[in-house]
Design brief:
This protein is α/β, with parallel strands linked by helices. The protein contains 13 helices and 16 strands. The strands form 4 sheets. A 5-stranded mixed beta sheet has the order 1-2-3-4-5, covered by helices on one side. The protein has a 5-stranded antiparallel beta sheet with strand order 6-7-8-10-9. The longest helix has 24 residues. The chain is globular, with a radius of gyration of 25 Å. The model has no long low-confidence stretch (mean pLDDT 91).
Length: 392
Amino acid sequence: MQTRNENGTLTIILEGRIDTNNAPQVEAELLSAAEGQEKIALDAEQLEYISSAGLRVLMKLCKIRGEAVRVTNVSRDVYEIFETTGFTEILDVKKALRQVSVEGCEVVGSGGYGTVYRLDRETIIKVYMNNSPELIENERLMSQRAFVAGLPTAIPYDTVRVGDKYGVVYEMLDAKTAAEHITADPDHLEDYVRRFAAALREFHSIEITDSLFHDKKQLQRGVIDTLKDFLTPEESAEINNYLDSVPERHTFLHGDYNFKNVMFRGDEVMLIDIGDAGFGHPAFDLAGVYLATIYMKGTRMSTEEKIRLMGYDPELADRVWAAFCGEYFGADTPEKLEHCTQMLTPLALVATTYHAMRRVAGLSREQIELRVNSIVRGKLLPAIRNCPALDL
């Protein structure tokens, strides 16, 4: 029986057929290999068939260990046996992912997390840079549950393998993003932005209680907590007190609501790329819109990079932000617009800190200190001290 040990987990590879003829031998080898191991998993990629005798061997392994054992890469035929006999309730069974090729496929979009290809007239595939199948499957499930909850998202299909990477297949929406509409028709920019803002206000009327969706406030607080060795106790307390002041809500949050992630299809407004979705106060999403407009315009990035991230000419950002605040907040004077901007700036900078530090393990101490001084001390703390209270 072949095994491999990766990241503290012993994976035992099941091969061929397991039936009455060889079940006792498989049991002896399986229990021997698993003895003394803290974590084990079974890889069934080469398993062609399993009978009731083989299933009882796996049941015995679970009883001895006192926990469900994960079985991965299960073929569709073998999975049907597990499912029919009820063993999908006893074991943590994962089907083998189908292989998909994107060779020759049109690239329809790209971002910080992956590249989107058109597979055919009705489906696209998002191929992720992150190679964790668990995280990718989590995003697929999030899209599925958001759709079931009544949110207008692209319908997700299955998680697949694309060479040595992973992807999720989605329905192909016959629609253009809000950013594409703004770029193609800037004379009607305000109309598109008002539609974008009105849709967000409607989405913020939906409450989410599904445990799959994370608490946005706690997620960002966790990143701030990782900086405790680089901040004074007073600075940490000031940021945490500010986050505490944000009222608790279970409002649906897209997590990355920007003009590239919203599509217009006829009278419908469709959401895409909701891997960062969660719940919390609407101000977290609103701060994200600020980040994708005024804040992004003011960064030192090249114009080309700003256009890639924003989806439209950054010179339009002031008009976009004014139209957005006018629709969502009713901000119809320069004073009200400035109030909205100051109110959301701290949360936008908390999000900036989160994105700058979410991969803190890969940074040197000097790099972390530079980011803390620039973002936290240079921008976030002054913004907290000068912001008005949230009044929405």
